[in-house]
Amino acid sequence: MPEALKKPCAVRGGGCPELVADGCCPAHTRQQEAYRGSAASRGYDSHWSKVFRPAFFRALIRHGITPVCGEALPWGPRAATLKASACHKAGLLQARTLHLDHTPPLEDHERQSRSAVEDMGRIGLLCRSCHARKTQEENR
Q1: CA proximity to 136, closest of 43, 40, 28
Q2: For residue 123, what are the domain limits?
């Protein structure tokens, strides 16, 4: 099967001549990751991963809510364009590794507050591919 056509690097502002299969070239990917900072600097410390995240899933299950990618739900934010979702393509309504997603996204000053980062009213679930797409759209 022939290789798919490569696209220009998707760096902000454009101008990079590098051709890639998807996203940014390796140099600009590293540059964007450095700009975002580490997970801990964005408010996701060890308490988030070891205490809050497991407690969040236990609370969902205790209340009879099945953890699934929000994009896969009929009333999900992109129900009309669901066919683009990798979780839908794979036939997965319940992903093994779900990401917790803030809506609306956290502001920089909120990232310093554990209560803002762990506000259950602002957190939804997305599979890895849907979360990556949403984050990429927000960063544009």
Answers
A1: 28
A2: 41-139
Residue with structure tokens 């454009």? 14
- CA–CA gap between residue 34 and residue 37 (Å, rounded): 5
Give me the number of domains the chain comprises: 2
Q: Rounded CA gap, 17 and 122, in Å?
A: 39
Prediction pTM value: 0.63
* Residues in a beta bridge with 19: 8
Give 20's contacts (C-beta < 8 A, 6+ positions apart).
6, 7, 8, 9, 10
pLDDT over 50 (residue 79): no
60 and 123 in a single domain? The answer is yes
The Cβ of residue 136 has, within 10 Å, a number of other Cβ atoms equal to: 13
Other beta carbons within 10 Å of 78 = 17
Helices vs. strands in the chain: H and E counts, helices first: 6, 4
